[in-house]
Write a structure and sequence with these properties.
Blueprint (H helix, E strand, L loop, with lengths): L7 H11 L3 E5 L12 E8 L7 E7 L2 E6 H19 L4 E3 L5 H4 L2 H7 L4 E2 L5 E2 L7 E8 L19 H5 L5 E2 L2 E2 L12 H10 L1 E4 L2 E3 L3 H5 L10 H4 L2
Antiparallel strand pairs: 1-2, 2-8, 3-4, 3-12, 5-8, 6-7, 9-10, 11-12
Helix pairs in contact: 1-2
Length: 231
Amino acid sequence: MGIAEVNSTAIKALAGEIGFDQVGIIGPEHANGPPWTRSVLVLAMATLDPAFDHEMYIEYDGRRRWHKFVYTILEAQGARLAHALREEGLRAESLTFEDSFGCIDLRVAAVQAGLGVRGLNEVVVTPKYGPRVRFTALFTDAELARDHPLQDYYCVNCTRCWGDCPTGAIGPRGFDRSRCIAEFAPTPEMAERQREVLTFPTPATRLQCRACLDSCPVGERQGVFYFDVIP
């Protein structure tokens, strides 16, 4: 796996081979990356099935452990891409989700990179997959052609997510984060609401709420699911 020439087209193709579904490129001014960063790759993977949003929280031996399936995939693919770029003689460092908030706002970066636009629920809505995507980033010293924000908007005449949100966190006045049960660090009151509404397949695992994502009509049906093709 390699590239014949270091340019944005070749690097995007390489990212696609590794497993990313969308790639956009922005400048270093949009992130707090390493000082040698000249370009930032914003990388997206479609999360069409709710299984991607299962989370595990467990505490034992004095340590709290948190795991989310999709972030593990994104980190692994990002590390593969960074390794491939280093094999080409570039400097490259992929994002880990432990430090992601300090390095880059992935939603802002995805919009700046032309991967999608902000929806009513504050997540990024992409033309092909709707809001059913997750993002990561990679910093490199390669000087690459930049992408630009989209000029589209998809929520002008649609309020489907308003009715599908189980707690009314989305409505005519916008998005109320305090009522969103997808919250990672809930208050005691929010934790109780999560226990009432969310699915918990094991004592340590929950399915993060994605009602507004699944209700979005943009990119509503993509792919062939395994159980659709079993005889």
